[in-house]
Amino acid sequence: QGATGEVLRAEGKLLRLHQTGMADQIGKIDEELRLAAQLQKEFLPESVPEVGDCRFGILWRPAGYVSGDIYDVERLDEKHIGIFLADAVGHGVPAALMTMFIKRSLRTKEVGPDGYRIVEPGEALARLNTDLAERQTGKVRFATAVYGVLNTETRVLRIARAGHPIPMWLKADGPTEMLEPDGGLLGVFPEATFEQSEITLGQGDRLLIYSDGFEMA
Question: Which pLDDT band, with edges at 50, 70 and 90, does 140 fall under?
Answer without folding.
Answer: low
